[in-house]
Amino acid sequence: MFDQLREILTHNLDILTLALILIFAGIFIGAANIELQQQVLEQAREIALPEDPGSICHEIFMNNIQLAILSLISGLLIVFVPTLLMSIAVLSVGSTFGAVMGLTGPGWPQIMFTFGLLELWAFILAVTSGLLYPKWILLRLFGKATTIGETVLSSAWLLFHSAIALLIAGILEALLIWSDFSSLVSTLGIVALIMYCYLLGGS
Fold it and tell me: What is the rounded CA–CA span in Å between residue 53 and residue 2?
């Protein structure tokens, strides 16, 4: 399963790099923007989460998967609506991460290593999956493109892996919110992150 993901990413390092640049630009914007951090804090206070971890995980996952699909669409439509990609990848994803890092201060490493890095990676995959389509159009113009079917399959595979990463991150985030044993949850998150990196890197 991870072999195919590695192959897709290896053949599309250019758009993977673009997705990374966009999202990390947003992170820097969010980390430095006090006003945005205040907005994120106010929005977080208005959210009424369920009490049981299963429902918390479901709500987190559904919100994140919707944003992942929007990230895919924004990449797909970059040729027609370039501002949409900037809005989703930089502002909705990257800057929100940056704002949370700014708000949590010294506590941000725990959040990032427990579930944040997996969540961030999932959105990077989602943006990359959308950017496969404009890349195919450009290659098509120069007579170097693969078939559209291969592009669709690669995009779907990236979105699938994005959903898996979001599910794992959602479970860990829900446990971190619900449980009184944050250190144990953080340890589980770090172990999950190491295992994921190991599988992605290949044995």
Answer: 28
Asked whether 64 and 122 are in contact (CB, 8 A), the reply is yes
Is it the case that residue 203 has pLDDT exceeding 60?
no
Spatial separation of the C-alpha atoms in residues 92 and 95, rounded to whole Å: 6
Q: Which parts of 77-147 fold into alpha helices (H)?
A: 82-85, 95-104, 108-111, 117-141
Q: Which tokens in the block code for residue 49? A: 């989460």
Tell me the per-residue pLDDT of 51-93, one tens digit each, with 9 for 90 and over: 788 888 888 899 889 988 988 888 888 767 777 767 777 767 7
CA angle 81, 85, 87 (to 5 degrees): 105
User: How distant, in Å, are the alpha carbons of 48, 72, 75, 90 from that of 131?
Assistant: 35, 7, 4, 14
* Cα-Cα-Cα-Cα dihedral sign, residues 118, 112, 71, 49: positive
